[in-house]
Amino acid sequence: MQRTDKRNFDQLREISITPTFNIHAEGSALTKFGNTHVICNATIEKAIPRWMTDVKTGWVTAEYGMLPRSTNERMNREAQRGKQSGRTLEIQRLIGRSLRQVVDLKKLTGYTITVDCDVIQADGGTRTASITGGTVALCLALKKINMEDAINNLVAAVSVGVNNKTCLLDLNYEEDSSADSDINIVMNENLDLIEVQGTAEEKPFSKEEFSTLINLAENGIKDLISLQREIIEDK
């Protein structure tokens, strides 16, 4: 099939990560997966959640949100509605779980790092861009306070899916919205699986297709982690 942006089936969108995008945050990254743009800011606090008072460890958490004109129609701010949507909560929990795999929490004892992921423009893959860029922001924050030894693994994420019987890497919104199945995959730099979120929307996918999708994701994540490492080591 011909992809809408003329990419090969196994090709990532144009990826860019601009580090230290925010002059105020301890770590930050403007992350672009094609037309999906996410600002990731990492904030370090010398405090831990109250429920962790008796535990000798630190904490990493995430918040996620989409700005009103990040999509083709204006959406109301969730603060105006008085609560976050189930989708928002699910995505920010995924981001938090993924980013906690980046660090050795015991080496963060007494500290909390919050990574805010704000989508300023959406075209599919906002959660995967948030995880990939959030990892860079988190590592840069740790470098700023000379806690690089707390970094365990780089973590990146990408979407894959089956559209018109073709397995595709890094779906944009048009591809995702018409896909027979779509899967978000999170891996570390050893290519160990951290999380797999997959759904058959129209037609179930076979074991063979799933294996192909995992391989596509693995190759894409190799490229993403190579880019992350280059940026983090350069700063």
UniProtKB/TrEMBL annotation:
Subunit structure: Homohexameric ring arranged as a trimer of dimers.
The entry's keywords: Nucleotidyltransferase, RNA-binding, rRNA processing, Transferase, tRNA processing, tRNA-binding
Role description: Phosphorolytic 3'-5' exoribonuclease that plays an important role in tRNA 3'-end maturation. Removes nucleotide residues following the 3'-CCA terminus of tRNAs; can also add nucleotides to the ends of RNA molecules by using nucleoside diphosphates as substrates, but this may not be physiologically important. Probably plays a role in initiation of 16S rRNA degradation (leading to ribosome degradation) during starvation.
Binding site for phosphate: R87, G125, T126, R127
Catalytic activity: tRNA(n+1) + phosphate = tRNA(n) + a ribonucleoside 5'-diphosphate
InterPro entries: ExoRNase_PH_dom1, ExoRNase_PH_dom2, ExoRNase_PH_dom2_sf, PNPase/RNase_PH_dom_sf, Ribosomal_Su5_D2-typ_SF, RNase_PH, RNase_PH_bac-type, RNase_PH_CS
Xref: Pfam families: RNase_PH (PF01138), RNase_PH_C (PF03725)
PROSITE patterns: RIBONUCLEASE_PH (PS01277)
Name this polypeptide is given: Ribonuclease PH
The keyword tRNA-binding belongs to this UniProt entry's keyword annotation: yes
A Gene Ontology biological process term: tRNA processing
Family from the record: Belongs to the RNase PH family.
MF annotations from Gene Ontology: 3'-5'-RNA exonuclease activity; tRNA binding; tRNA nucleotidyltransferase activity
Enzyme Commission number(s): 2.7.7.56
